[in-house]
Write a structure and sequence with these properties.
2 domains; globular
Length: about 350
């Protein structure tokens, strides 16, 4: 047993919830952003502007999604170069629509973790490392993708479909539940974007998820303005509310205003504005980060109009985006914050960021 532990330590194989559930998941979201999400934005701009070149560039970026996710995960797992480069093939296979369907991101995450650790285990153990390491990494990764991919894809799709079905059936209660849970995930050191992508969370459920993320980001940005001024406003409002995690650990009650706000804006999104996220599923978990969530909403509207599912993008759509994503999160969280400051649950500098 000691020999095994020593070998794993030497190979930097660390089996832990943090490495797989936080580091790898967060990296996967970055890979998604650098391929599918940015590709969707570029191609949408091209379509709206009538620029075929941008559409082509965006489509190539989207085509690299599986490889980008796998390489990002491998980088987070600190894979040596030969393993890391070989993961491009693994991610491409795991994300292929004919392998895992809509559950590709989940398949990529799980399969890449196994392929990475197997590749690391054999890396530099033989004199023909340049052949052995890529072979083992790709053989294990692609083999597992073909074996597990369909099941993982079906499971992810089933869970995502169940959430979306329940939201359609009970938009008020599920609007609250989805908004609060995904919003909390956004602020925790895990990736809400990767979770939404893995579950293919779109439609009304995607709209509720976006509402919860915006409540956290805009909410914390406004709530902490007296401590962090304009730098904090932009860092949290279009960056990430995860910056507050250190302060939340010290005083968990500072989280309550944003959570209460998400419980209000979620059902407003689903019941009042019927806000559907029909762009890329990953945008459902991005909130106002780089305004990716709002761009995702818009691309979904454009797609729906093109397919005939929607007659036109209306003023009511834009009003819903403005209120749910920006105005209500700021106003409600600020009001809740005033109350909690008054009763002493939030004290001076509890929300101060080290910037």
């Amino acid at each position: 047993m000691e020999k095994i532990r020593a070998f794993m330590k030497r190979k930097n194989i660390v089996i832990s919830a943090k490495r797989y559930g936080i580091d790898a998941l967060g990296a996967m979201a970055q890979g998604l952003f650098a391929s599918l999400l940015i590709g969707t934005i570029i191609s949408t701009i091209g379509e709206q502007a009538g620029l075929a070149l941008l559409v082509t560039i965006g489509n190539y970026a989207k085509a690299a999604t599986g490889a980008a996710m796998a390489v990002a995960i491998g980088n987070a797992l600190q894979c040596p170069p030969l393993v890391l480069f070989s993961l491009a093939a693994v991610g491409t296979a795991a994300n292929a629509s004919e392998v895992a369907g809509a559950g590709g991101p989940l398949a990529v995450l799980i399969v890449t973790i196994f392929a990475s650790e197997c590749g690391k285990a054999v890396s530099k153990e033989t004199k023909i490392d340049i052949l052995v390491t890529p072979f083992v990494t790709i053989f294990v990764g692609v083999g597992l993708a073909l074996w597990w991919g369909p099941g993982l894809g079906a499971a992810a799709s089933a869970v995502g479909s169940a959430i979306m079905w329940a939201t359609e059936l009970q938009p008020f209660f599920m609007g609250i539940l989805v908004s609060v849970i995904v919003g909390i995930a956004l602020t925790l050191p895990i990736s809400s974007a990767a979770i939404c992508a893995a579950l293919s969370l779109t439609g009304l459920a995607g709209g509720a998820a976006l509402a919860g993320c915006c409540a956290q980001m805009v909410g914390f940005a406004v709530l902490s303005f007296r401590e962090n001024k304009w730098g904090g406003l932009f860092a949290q409002g279009i960056g990430t509310s995860m910056l507050q995690m250190g302060n939340i650990v010290k005083n968990p009650r500072i989280w309550i205003p944003a959570i209460l706000t998400s419980a209000i804006t979620g059902p407003i999104a689903t019941c009042v504005f019927h806000m559907e996220m029909n762009g890329a599923a990953v945008a459902s978990g991005m909130g106002t980060c780089g305004f990716v969530g709002q761009i995702g909403l818009y691309t979904g509207w454009v797609s729906d109009v093109a397919s005939g599912a929607k007659d036109a993008v209306t003023l009511f759509d834009w009003l819903g985006m403005l209120l749910v994503c920006f105005v209500l999160p700021g106003v409600l969280t600020w009001l809740f914050g005033l109350f909690f400051r008054r009763i002493g649950w939030i004290r001076e500098n509890d929300l101060k960021l080290e910037m």
